[in-house]
Design brief:
By secondary structure, this protein is of the alpha+beta class. It folds into two domains: about 120 residues; about 60 residues. The protein is about 40% helix and about 40% strand. It contains five helices and ten strands, in the order E-H-E-E-E-E-E-H-E-E-E-E-H-H-H. Strands 1, 2, 3, 4, 5, 6, 7, 8, 9 and 10 form a ten-stranded antiparallel sheet that branches.
């Protein structure tokens, strides 16, 4: 990796159990990294020596699990490859920014999969890859032929008519409690009708 090459990891959302962190430490040692770790009630920190730099991975304790928190800039090629394997292995989320010469690649990862890759050169941006939502032809046909909303709207109209009749009866008998109950029910039915119309 050249001096100008660096990889930034932002908005990390990676969750681990204690065994996975122990395996991570073992794998890093097997890769030849010098490291040490410390732990307190809230954090588990793994400090990795890469040349003159020290990268501290901070794992926040969440009951019996841990969450990798913070943003990291890594200039070590092996360690950045290791981080990306780790993101994929735990099916985590991250925004990965690679700086090389005058080019920047920004990669969005969700559930361990790349969903978007953007190239930035100066003021220009170009989308190199965008994962499409997986919608089958069957699902599209089913959505177009579905009549559930129309059927529910017919039912709602009948329910609203009935609720209005109950409200009218309650007001005629001066039953304020029953009238208030009917108004609340009508408000819920009205909201559902508005949602279906949109």
């Amino acid at each position: 990796m050249n001096r100008s090459d660096e990889v930034e990891y932002r908005n990390l959302e990676l969750r681990f159990d204690r065994r996975q962190i122990q395996n991570l430490i073992r794998d890093l040692i097997q890769e030849g990294y010098s490291l040490y770790w410390s732990e307190n009630e809230t954090l588990f920190i793994v400090s990795i020596r890469t040349g003159r730099k020290l990268v501290k991975l901070r794992f926040q304790r969440l009951q019996d699990r841990f969450k990798l928190v913070g943003d990291y800039t890594i200039r070590d090629e092996k360690l950045s490859e290791f981080m990306e394997r780790m993101i994929g292995h735990v099916r985590g989320h991250a925004v990965v920014r690679r700086c090389k010469d005058r080019q920047v690649l920004v990669e969005n990862i969700m559930f361990g999969e790349r969903i978007r890759l953007v190239e930035i050169c100066g003021p220009e941006q170009r989308v190199l890859y965008q994962k499409r939502p997986v919608i089958t032809l069957e699902e599209m046909v089913q959505a177009f032929t579905s009549t559930q909303a129309e059927e529910r709207m017919g039912e709602l109209r009948l329910e609203i008519d009935y609720a209005l009749t109950e409200l009218h009866d309650a007001m005629r008998m001066n039953d304020a409690e029953k009238a208030e109950e009917c108004k609340k029910g009508l408000e819920l039915l009205r909201r559902e009708m508005i949602q279906l119309e949109w």
